[in-house]
Amino acid sequence: KQEVTQIPAALSVPEGENLVLNCSFTDSAIYNLQWFRQDPGKGLTSLLLIQSSQREQTSGRLNASLDKSSGRSTLYIAASQPGDSATYLCAASISNFGNEKLTFGTGTRLTIIP
Amino acid sequence: DVKVTQSSRYLVKRTGEKVFLECVQDMDHENMFWYRQDPGLGLRLIYFSYDVKMKEKGDIPEGYSVSREKKERFSLILESASTNQTSMYLCASSWEGDYGYTFGSGTRLTVV
């Protein structure tokens, strides 16, 4: 059974710093890996999707990498801003028939200190 | 952009009531999902559906059922609401391909 872990559970950094969020998974036979952002009391917003054949994806100040062999993905946020404060979740899909099922990590709550 | 709409942001129901949570997506996605999210437990899959009339149990289906009569609509039903079903409920949809999941904004259900 796929297990997804995100450590640390919470992280605080000063505004302007670059930071890395970590995600690890136990089954390397993933179909894709997706990073989401969740603001308090809200739904999930998709940030980046990495296919199993890809090594990284970039969107603006965000860069996500995937290393299937080591069972790890990272989300890099450049020049952090207070608006980046949120919970970040990663999720791994293990099916070949579209995105059948995602297994989620429990998230990292990020606070950017002005 | 794909939009997934959950009909209610907040609901308060009494123990024993039958509760319907509605989810509608507007991009002809085949796959739809219901999750619940609880502090410390993360997101857990309740039910999912790959097509109209089809449904599959997720990890925690007990106490729930679903209905998918039309492709765009996926309903979660709490047959007899209990206080341990107080939670945030999230609906999602995806295309049968490589485009990831799109989530609704969630329904915060409180059972009293």
Describe what you observe in this structure.
The complex is a heterodimer of chains A (114) and B (112). Chain A has 114 residues and is mainly β. Chain A contains no helices and eleven strands. In chain A, strands 2, 4, 5, 9, 10 and 11 form a six-stranded mixed sheet that branches. Chain A has a five-stranded antiparallel sheet with strand order 1-3-8-7-6, with no helix packed on it. In chain A, a hairpin with an 8-residue loop joins strand 9 and strand 10. Chain A is globular, with a radius of gyration of 14 Å. The mean pLDDT of chain A is 91. Chain B has 112 residues and is an all-beta fold. Helix content of chain B is 0%, strand content 54%. In chain B, strands 2, 4, 5, 6, 9, 10 and 11 form a seven-stranded mixed sheet that branches. In chain B, strand 4 and strand 5 form a beta hairpin. Chain B starts with a strand and ends with a strand. The model of chain B has no long low-confidence stretch (mean pLDDT 92). Chains A and B meet through strand 4 and strand 5 of A and strand 5, strand 9 and strand 10 of B.
In short:
The complex is a heterodimer of chains A (114) and B (112). Chain A has strands spanning 4-5, 10-14, 19-25, 32-38, 44-51, 56-59, 62-67, 72-77, 86-93, 102-104, 108-113.
Comma- or semicolon-separated keywords:
heterodimer; A: 114 residues; mainly beta; 6-stranded mixed sheet; 5-stranded antiparallel sheet; 11 strands; 0% helix; globular; B: 112 residues; 7-stranded mixed sheet; 4-stranded antiparallel sheet
Largest interface: A-B, 23 and 28 residues
Note the main sheet of chain B: 7 strands, mixed
SSE succession of chain A: EEEEEEEEEEE
Shape label of chain B: globular
User: How many β-strands of chain A, per DSSP?
Assistant: 11
In this structure, how is the largest beta sheet of chain A organized?
Answer: 6 strands, mixed
Question: What is the first-to-last residue Cα distance of chain B?
Answer: 37 Å
Return the average pLDDT of chain A rounded to an integer: 91
**What level of helicity do the residues of chain B show?**
under 10%
Structural class of chain A: mainly beta
